[in-house]
Each structure stands twice: as C-alpha cells, then as structure tokens.
Amino acid sequence: MTEIRQRLLRNAIGPMVPLTAVLLALIIGAFMVLAFGGDPIEGYRAMFSGAFGGWDELSETTLRATPLLLVGVGICIAFRSSVINIGGEGQIIAGALLCTTIVLVLPDLPRPVLLPLALLGGAVGGAFWGWMPGMLKAYAAVNEILSTIMLNIVAGYLMQFLLLGPMKDRQSEELGDIAQTERLSENAKLPTLLEGTQFNLGIVVAVLAAIVGFVLLWRTSLGFEMRAVGGNQIAAQYAGMRVKRNIVLALTFSGMMSGLAGAVLVLSSTAHRLSVESGPSGFTQLAGFNGIVAALFGALHPLWTIPASFLFGGLLVGAFALQRAVQVATPLVVALSGLVVVFVVSSESIVTRAREWAERVSQIAKGGSSSGNEPSTPLGATDPGSPRAPDSASEPESTQTPETSSETIVT
Amino acid sequence: MNLLAIVDFSVVEIFAARSGWSGFFTLSTLVVTIAATIRLATPFVIASVGESVGQRSGVLNLGVDGVMLLGAFGAYYTTLETGSPWLGLAVGTGVGAVMGLVYAFITVTLHAQQGISGIGIYLFGLGMSDLLFRQLVGTPKPIGGFEGLFEFSVPETRFDVAYPDLYNHSILVYMAFLLVPAVTLLVNRTTFGMNVRAVGETPEAADSLGVSVTRTRYSTIIIANSLAGVAGAALALEKGIFIQNITNGMGFIAVALVYFGAWRPIGVMAGSLLFGLVNALVLQWKTLGIISGATAQLAEMAPAAVTIIALVVVTNRIGQPSALTQPFRRGAH
Questions:
Q1: Does any domain span residue B36?
Q2: Which residues in chain A are closer than 8 Å to B312, comparing Cβ atoms?
Q3: Where is pLDDT greater, at B310 or B65?
Q4: Is position B24 within any domain?
Q5: Which residue of A has its CA nearest to B133?
Q6: Can you tell me the mean pLDDT for A260-285?
Q7: B179 lies in which domain range?
Q8: What is the mean pLDDT of residues B67-91?
Q9: In chain B, how many domains are there?
Q10: Do A136 and B312 touch (CB under 8 A)?
Q11: Quick one: CA dihedral A321, A325, A330, A332, positive or negative?
Q12: pTM of the predicted model, to two decimals?
C-alpha cells in the first residue's frame, strides 16, 4: 500500500508543473491588466466566455487549437527524442505550399481523392522540411536549433516568392502585388462536421495525429528507440540502436505533423486560398511557436496535448473578448505564453527538490526505512555531466523537466 | 517580411533617378550600397557580438529577438516621451540588462534548458513589446533618432566630401563597429575574458581553480542581453518608429551569426556585413527595377541559405565552446 501511496505522491508532482505554470502566468497577467487600469476578474470572465461560452466560440477555439495540436504532437515527438525543433513555422509553410500546389494542379479530382491527397501533400512537405535539419544534424553535426530557424526564414521567403510569382492569383493581377493564390477548388474544402458551425474535419485529423503520435512513441519499438536515443545517446548506441537514423526520423515525423497543420490551415481558411498578405507569421498564426507552448503545457505527451491545445487555443481566441471587455490588447496572451514556457522549463530543479521532499514524507510515513529503490530520474535528466556524443554539436542537455514530469503519466 | 520597407527613403530617392543595370554600375550607387550595408548591418553587429560573449561562457540565448523587441520599444517610448535619443538608448540598454538578469536566473541558477527557455523569452518579448505599444502609444508616431555625425554642405569637389553617405552615420553605427575590437580585447586579453573562455570550455576546471562559474555566466549573460537591448534601440532609433515585431526575426539571425563567425567578433562582424549587403542590394535592385518583387524574395532568402551552409562548414572545422548549452552544477561529476 505504501508503495502505491509513495508512487502517487511522487507522480502527483508531474502534472502539477504545467498547471502551476499557467496559473502563475495568469496571475501575472491579472496584475498586468490591473496595471493598465482594467478589472482582471471581468477580463478573465470575458476571456473565458469568449473562448468557451457558446457553439460559435467553441468552434472558433477548435479552429485555433487544430494547428496548435498538430504542431504540438510533432514537438512531443522531437523533444522526446532530444531534438529541439524550432522549425514549426517553416514546416507549416512547406506543408501548406505542397498541399496548395497539389490542389492547384489537380482541382477537378473528386473530393474523396483530392482531400486525402492534399493532406498527404501537406504531411510530405512538412516532413521534407524536417528531414533536412535532421540530416544536417545527424551527418553534418549542424545544431538543429539554428538550422530549423534558418529554414523558417527560407520557407517564409520561398512562400512569398511563390505567391508573388508562379502561384500568384492571375485574376487579381490588376489589383497589384497581392501575394495569394486563386481560390482553391471546392473539392478541397475540409467538410464541416456540424451544419452551421465552423467545426471541420481538421480537428479530427489532429486528434487522430495525436493518437498516432502516442502509439508511435510508446507502443512501437521505433518510438522506444527514439526516446532511448533522446535519453542517452551513448547508451542507445551501445544497445545497438541507430542513433543517426533516429534523429533524422524524429525531425521528419515532427515536420510531418507541422506540415499537416499547414495543410489544414489552408484548407480550412475562410478565403479558401493560400495568402500571405500579412506576412508568413500572419498565415501560420505563429502556430510553429505556440505549438511548443501547447506541447510543454501538455507535458510533452501527445494525448495531454489535446486538452492543452484547446485551452491554449481558447486563450488566444478569448484574448479578443478580453480586449473588448477591459481594453487590454490581445498580445497579452502571447506574452503570457512566453512566461508559461519559461516557468515550465525552469521548474526542473524545483521539481527535483519537491520530489525529494515527497520521497522523504512517504519514507517517514512508511517508517523511515532507507530509500534504496528510488528509480533514478528517467533519461538522465539530472545528469548534466553525461558524456556527449562526439557528433552532436551543442547537444541539448536531454529533455529535462517535462520529460521527468510526464513519464509518470504514461507508465 | 520587408525589413527595409520603412527605412532608407534617402537611398530610394537617389536610386529613383536612374533605372536598370546601367544605374547600378555607377560610383554613386556603389557608395550608397556600401553606406546602406553598414547601416543595415549595425543591429546585427551589436546583437551578435554581444551574443558571442554569452556563448563563449557556454550560454546560448535564443531569446535575443525578444530582448531586442523590448529594447526597441523601451528606446522608442522613452525617446517619444522625452525627445532624447540618448535617454532612449539608456532605457533600451537597461531593459536588456534586466532581461539578462532574468535569463541568467533561469538558465544558471535554475539550470533550465537553454534552447526552449530562449523561445519563452522570445514569445514574452514579442507579446510584451506589442502589448505595451498598443496600450501606451497606439498609433505609430515618428521619433527623431541620432543625427549623422558628419553633415556636409560643402560643394562636391572631393570624393570624401562628395560622398558623405560613406561615413555620415549616427554615433550608434560607430559604437557598433568599435564593439568588435573592444569585445575581442575583452575576451582575449583580460582576466575576465580568460575566465569567460575557461567557463565556456571546462566549467569544472574553472570552478576548481576558484573561478565562479555562476558569477561569470551572470556577467556575460547580462552583457549579451544589454547589447541585444542596444541593438533593438539602434533599430528603433534608426528607423525612427516602432511597429509590431519590428525586428522581424533579426535576433534569431544574430544568434546564427555567432556560429557563422565561429565565436570570434571579427567573424561575427563579417557575417553581419554579409546580411547587411544582401539587404542593401535587394533594396537597390528593387528600386532600380532590376528584379521584380517576387525575385527579390528569392534574393532575400540567400543569407539564410548561406548561413546553413556556413553552419556545416563551421561546426565541422572550428570548435565551439565545449560547454555551450550545458548547465553547470558543482559536484555533478
């Protein structure tokens, strides 16, 4: 019994981290609202009802959560494998571009053929954009953080080039340099699930992707290898795992998910076309970065990322209601999401200490026997001195906190 | 996406007089290109030379872009309210220093993973600067930045007088390029610099010899972030305006430039000038009608693509600080 209680107490700390982080961020947000002369209670109430208060609001939130979830699942896969994929933005764009190209070239295919093909195109485009930094990291020792950031920039300009050049809408030519494609084929529209609302097939795709991500990471030997490589490359190599292949795969899968997000963004857009009028980040809605926030809030677990994306999407949608209610502008939520990331990431040493404390409490409850059976923190998270693989240029020091915290949810 | 959309009207005016390639191959165009290169490279130089100091001590800061945005807003708002760009610069620097203190606490004291916490700082800076701008200013109002140091009204008789564009930059530009030798000296020729390098290579050894890893890294992070704040301030003062996401990812490029320049200020400066040159050329070619709007996008892609290639070359040939991104805990070995 004490064994179970000990485990419960220890595991309870894991999911607490993201929740505490969000709560802390919201409290700081309340002070910011107060500082700008608004009533935080009123603001947050408006925010909540603006995000979840009715069918319209819920469908808006769902629409916003879909790309976050897809990117977030990709982030889970990458971060679990100790690959820091910052390239969500670029991978979304690459997916959107390939998806749009397919729809533009084959507009007359029937919907049951065209739609899966378009989504597949998105996945392939994103996967390719993730495969590149994967190969660079595995075989040329290029830090994936930097290569993915550079590929974001490349993708952004590539999109603007294509939308101003080869893919430009010929009909709006006389309107000047509008960077957008023509209206896409109706056969490529994501079908709505409920008549009269904006719920569409995208969220189904995203939830399925989350399940696939979970199965991949925890129910296949490939996922086991990827996580093992993420935990300790040297040990994984000794165990006969192909480290380089796993790094490439992790980034490819991660990019694939973001690419799907790009396809969904295009196919569910209200104008039903790929447009970059407000810049590349206007198209992606910064989902490449916000997906990281959602994934961290979901404790880097694909299934927990589902509710996390909804909540975070809700915050982004509700920000407009908050702005109307208390005249505090929407970027507040962007700033708060940054704080969430900072809090989650910097909680490691605090969590470690809390764990030790929980351990001691349960030991006392048990009768003070020595703790010889304490499993070491998974995947070497508390071991900064672990030897680094010779081929990894700045290897991030394993997946730290979220790793530790959510391992418990899973096993 | 256009970094240059709101700057360099002067350049545009000069180009507008001619068009096509014939307009490009003239002395005055060459001069203006060089001048624009230097001016556009300035924020990159400041931010990336600063970031190189942080990385030499083993700390990667991906949040440079966010800190630049906060510094830019701080400088813009202060200048708008007081009319003094010097005060604006000071506030921009101070904002950077505070962010540095926060980042040092997160990564050094709390041992947080550096790549991801940098993204947190970026999002915070992106949201916060935009929020403050919308709450406190609302609509973009222009501010007066620094004047050029050498205004000439002398008849155009000699080359140096005829082309004051070459050196008639604001004092910020001069300070930026003076940073390069200054930081080189600091890192290579002072006790502090030696500590920085030791802490970046083998923190355990440095610690055992009595060098405080914590104190050294706190100092370098604060220096790096202060300079990121200055870079943002320079951007806002040069453009004379603040807009949402004014940096447009420059901070991320600055981080990559540190790798590009192999952690040496002189190399970092070379990379910055390359970015400045491409930006200047694209602006000119567009104005001269040599390339279309679409092709210009391809040209602007070039520096990022070149950086990726440079990363392949640099990471394979030149050693980065061994302890880069590795938090230090005493006795962890």
A1: no
A2: 136, 140, 142
A3: B65
A4: no
A5: A329
A6: 88
A7: 43-263+293-317
A8: 96
A9: 1
A10: yes
A11: negative
A12: 0.86
